[in-house]
Amino acid sequence: MMNRKLNVEEDFQLISEELVKLFSSNYLDKAARKVSFLQRSSKFKPIDFISLCGFFNHYSGTKSLSQLCGILESKRNISLTTEGLNQRFNDTGVSLLRAIFQELLSKHFLSFTIPSQYQLDIRRLRILDSTAFELPVTYIEKYQGYHKSGVRIQLEYDLLNGEFLHLAVQNGRESDYTFGQTLSNSIKKHDLIIRDLGYLSFGVLAEINKRDAYYISRLKTNIVNYVKEDTGFYTKLDLDKIMEEMEIGEVREIENIYVGKDKMNIPRLILCKLTDEQTEQRKKRLQKKEIKKGVKVSHQTQKLSRLNMFISNIPYQSIPKEEIQPFYSLRWQIEI
Asked: H/E/C letters for each residue in the chain?
């Protein structure tokens, strides 16, 4: 049987089934009493409210009160007026949802096991990403976006142990770069930190080194790279020439490069040459980025669009160059 991509409703149904396993009706009643959401007997129970907000409302925040009442009628066999439902969306309702969310964050979910062939002592495999979206204009005083009201959510997850590490709700204007720097003090020995280009900071990389932790990161194409000659002089890497020399699909490694104006030492630079199809897909993404953000992609970035560039301080004896890109792709698990 061929694999079929689930639609939003089917995807949401699977999530709902897992949530129901975690939160029984009795558990939700107790949680609701703690925050005064449940004070007396009612046909509209906490499980109905939670279900309406999360378990089977995959268009949460977009339906009218009348439509939500219709969902209650069809899904839970509960008849409620629009005003009766409106009164339940209050501070205690928010407190109940917050309590459930905090409980979810404390749960252990699926974890990742590092294959035994990799001789690397990793205590936590930290993946970080953000998502941003617009809000109704009524929220603009609290959450400011670039054009109207907007919010950005930052989430860091330990893939090795199945634990959530950090969650932050920010203004839509806040940058990934700045948030990544705020987590520097939380870095521990033998952490492996994997982040995308938006978080790239050489100061953070230096802190990771200082704390005996590891990193894998993409490297921006507009950053100047050097190698240090025996004479002590620095020679600029000609990435255009290296790219032309490489075969499609080839992975090449350059040890001990120096980056940026301060010439920070990076133990490993891994270059992966993409196929024609992969290169074309990247160019299309760059074009979309230009249109969406109104930012012109640099000529250097366009020239090197056939290269994936990774930097890491993991010893090459532990993870060979061919495995760096697959390890980096673990970052995509944060979206799941």
From this structure: CCCCCCCHHHHHHHHHHHHHHHCCHHHHHHHHHHCCCCCCCCCCCHHHHHHHHHHCCCCCCCCCHHHHHHHHHHHHCCCCCHHHHHCCCCHHHHHHHHHHHHHHHHCCCCCCCCCCCCCCCCCEEEEEEEEEEECCHHHCCCCECCCCEEEEEEEEEECCCCEEEEEEEEECCCCHHHHHHHCHHHCCCCEEEEECHHHCCHHHHHHHHHCCCEEEEECCCCCCEEEECCCCCEEECCHHHHHHHCCCCCEEEEEEEEECCCCEEEEEEEEEECCHHHHHHHHHHHHHHHHHHCCCCCHHHHHCCCEEEEEECCCCCCCCHHHHHHHHHHHHHHCC
